[in-house]
Structure formats: C-alpha cells, structure tokens
Amino acid sequence: MRTLKLMKTTVIASLLCALTPVAGMASGVRTEYQDWLLPEQPAVPADNKMTAERIGLGRALFFETRLSKDGNMSCASCHNPSRGWSDGLPTGHGHRGQVLGRATPTIVNAAFNKIQMWDGRKRDLEDQAMGPMEAQAEMHSDFDAVFSFLNSNARYREMFEKAYPGEGISKNTLAKAIASFERTVVSRDTPFDRWVRGDDKAMTASQLRGMQIFMDEKKGNCAACHSAPNFTDDGFHNIGLASYGNSEPDLGRYKIKPIRILKGAFKTPSLRGVEFTAPYFHDGSAATLMDVVEHYARGGDVKTDLSPNIKTLDLSMQEKRDLVAFMRALSEPGLEKAGLPNVPVLSMDVSED
Amino acid sequence: MQAKHVMLLAAGMLAASSALAGEYEVAQENKDFTVKTLEIKVGDVVSFPNHDEFHHNVFSISDAKTFDLGSYNKGETRKVTFDKPGTVQVECAIHPSMQMTIEVKE
User: Fold this and answer.
1) Domain assignment of residue B75, yes or no
2) Count of the separate structural domains present in chain B
3) φ/ψ of residue A174, rounded to 5
4) Angle of helix A52-62 versus helix A154-163 axis, rounded to 10
5) What's the CA gap between A13 and B49, in Å, rounded?
6) What residues of A are in contact with residue B96 (Cβ under 8 Å)?
7) CATH code of the domain in which B44 resides
8) pLDDT tens digits, A189-231
9) Residues on A contacting B at a C-beta cutoff of 8 Å
10) Cβ A236–B96 below 8 Å, yes or no?
11) A17: which of A57, A141, A146, B53 lies 20 to 30 Å off by Cα?
12) Does A319 participate in catalysis according to the annotation?
C-alpha cells in the first residue's frame, strides 16, 4: 500500500514537473506532443493547387447568394463566419426554411479532413462543394440560371479565367474555387498549439489538467477518437445519442457502408474551434460543452449499436470542468476574418456588361 | 517491427515450401495496416491482429471475398481464409483511411 502511495506521489510529482515550467522560460516545442501540430499546408489535389486567384474567387462564390434557387442563400448562410463557420442551430435550415436532418459541420480545418460530411459520403472538399447547391432541401440551385448569371457577369468571367485559365465556368471550376477558399479557414494557433510550440503560459492550470484527462486512456480517453493532429480520427462511431432511440433513427454511415458496426455511426468532428460551434453532436442535442462531457461520462444514452470505445467515465465535477476548459483551449478567436477582407462581395455585379 | 518482418518472411517461406495453406499476418497499427499489398494463394489464411489501443473493424465487400470481422480491441486477432482467386480490397469500417489490397492467385 505504501509503495503504491509512493508511486502515485511520484507520478503526480512528475506530471506537475511536466506541466509547471520555470516561470518566464519558453521550453521549445514539446516533442511528446508535436504530433498534434497541424502540417503547414493541407493536402491539395494536383489539379487544384492553391493560388491567390483561386482563393479569391472561392471566397466570392462562398458568399454569393445568387448561386441558390431563390437568390437568398450562400454557403455562408449555414457556414457563417460569425457562428464559428457553422450556424448555431441544432440542425441546419435549408431552402425556404426547411429544417434539415443533421447539424451543419464547421468548415474550420475541414481542409485537413480525410473524408467529408457526417456520413463520409464525400471524399474531399472539391467533391463536397457542389453538394449543398445540388440538394433540393438546401440551396436548391438552378444550374442553368447559375451559369447564365456567372457567364453574364464580367467580373466573374475575369476571376474564373485568372483562376482557371481555359477551364471555363463549370461545376468543376466552381467546386475547385470554393474548396481552395475553404482550405484557408484554418485554426492552428490555439492556446493548445501555442503551448505545444513552447509557450508555457498559453494554457491555464485547469486547461492543462483537462488535457491530461483528455489524453488519458483510463480517464477521458477522448484522444482515442479525437486524435492528432486535427482532433479527429476521420472515423465513424455510434456514440449513443438519445435520438438513436427514435423509431426511425438516422443510421448515418451505415447508409453509405452497410457494415454492422456503422449503424448510427457518424464521423468524429475536429475539436479545433469547438468553443464557437454550439450546439454539438450531429443532431445538435448538446447545448454546451459540459453537456457533451456529461454525455460521455454516463457512457451514452442509447446502448444499441454503441461504439465499444464509449464507456462510463469516472470523472469528478472538477475533472469535467477541466475537460471543458481544455476544449476551450482548442479554439482561437478571429477566424471569421478569413472570410471577409478585401472582397467587395456585394458590389460584385457593378461591372456587369 | 523487425520481428514482424521475420515472422512475415517465415510465414511466406512456409507458404512457398509447403503444399499446406500459407499463413500471413496483416496487423492494424497506428491506425493503418502494416502491409499495404499482399499476394497469396487460394486457401491461404490471413490473420488481422489489432495492435492499437482502440477498436478496429476489418471488412471487405469484394467479389472475391466478403467478410466482416466485427469490432475488436488491442491484443485480439481474427483470421480469414481466402478461397477464391481475385482482388480483395480490405478496409477498416471505423477508420476508412485504413485500406490494403490482397491479390489471391490460383
């Protein structure tokens, strides 16, 4: 018993040493955590290298309401920069206010996802970009009208030609431009990132404790799925939400890949920027980050088809608060600015022929 | 890692030098398969041990072989006998970026 107590004391002491650097000293990149730092650039398709022209065109298109059937919705209507590039709603609202079945995922760091959408039905951002325009319940775009408008607008013709010389205005170039812009909405300078890079004061004591719980397989075990570097394993899990107990639940990934483990499974979202994207889960059923933690602490609500990674957690209220504090350390303010500067979106048509 | 290669080589030699079915190992490790392509013969057996701290679920819906090994944790392994020639795409259902290919020869 005494040995055990001693060991415990030593472990805690070591942990404190690791988490309490000498005041005022930057410790350099913490090598044991460097896997959590994002690569400098996201992967891009060979035919869609990022250029200023492509990003600028994509930015304009992302905010262009005239791409939708009624001329009143753009990508940014749901992926709103002021709402963490999501919409603040439990589930999205589409064409003429239709309530959609799933929450709007943020586009923050979507560039680093290896697979897109809650059910993974899109492989990359180019593949995903036309989805909302083609969906009748979402932007419900009339593509004849869209291409007629874009081709009649001198400014857009010029922007497309500079971005994709000789490729014309098509779904392909539209999707590539929007994807290029989305790849600029990146969070890589959160308090956590700064701490990993050696800024000893970047995270509070509570956030540091929360990080340990997050990583510890025997405590939060959050990193099993919210793994490095983008706080997602790009995997699919049924996390036991109450809505899976409905009479006709959303089967999620199973509709795309009919493998038993995927019944009711949805993609693990990244947690970078999570402070600004409430409510949470694919059905928007958790209003706060504490609600999320409580859900996992009780091991989910519906046990049918539950992921084997989901188990009851032994967490005190302080540990739960620390976890929430750590998740806040994964967010950085100011990402909304990636969308708006230097683009006269509303005056795009002043130079029409 | 070296031990694994030796084991794989030994299994390969066994397959080459014997009329018996060969046994191969494709582990799940660091959210990937340790072998990305594998050539085997009809009747050979491949085991899929999980070395990661979390669950994987190996499956294939290829014409040459359809199987779903279900979800299992670190330290467990499950085996598949390949009884038809052809190309078998193997994936983890939970982590779709985990993919590998088995060529089953006559």
Assistant:
1) yes
2) 1
3) -60, -50
4) 140
5) 36
6) 114-115, 120, 234-236, 257
7) 2.60.40.420
8) 999 999 999 999 999 999 999 999 999 999 999 999 999 999 9
9) 114-115, 120, 217, 224-225, 227, 233-237, 257, 259-262, 265, 307-309
10) yes
11) B53
12) no
Domain that holds residue B43: 22-105
Q: Return the pLDDT at A339.
A: 63
For residue B31, which residues of chain A lie inside 8 Å, CB to CB? 227, 233
Assigned domain for B98 exists:
yes
Contact B95 A233 (CB under 8 A): yes
Which domains does chain A show, CATH number per domain? 52-186+335-349 (1.10.760.10), 189-328 (1.10.760.10)
So what's the ipTM on this one? 0.81
Inter-chain CB proximity B96 and A115 less than 8 Å: yes
A14 has a pLDDT exceeding 60: no
Q: Measure CB to CB from residue B57 to each of A115, A120, A259 and give the nearest one.
A: A259
Chain-chain contact of B54 with A224 (C-beta, under 8 angstroms): yes
Query: Does the residue B67 lie in any domain?
Result: yes
> Of the candidates A204, A179, A192, which has an alpha carbon nearest to the alpha carbon of residue A271?
A192
For residues A72 and A4, which has the higher predicted lDDT (pLDDT)? A72
pLDDT above 90 covers what percent of chain B?
A: 79
The minimum CA-CA distance between B48 and chain A, rounded to whole Å, is 17
Does B8 reside within a domain? no
Residues in chain A: 353
Verify whether the Cβ–Cβ distance B93 to A120 is below 8 Å.
no
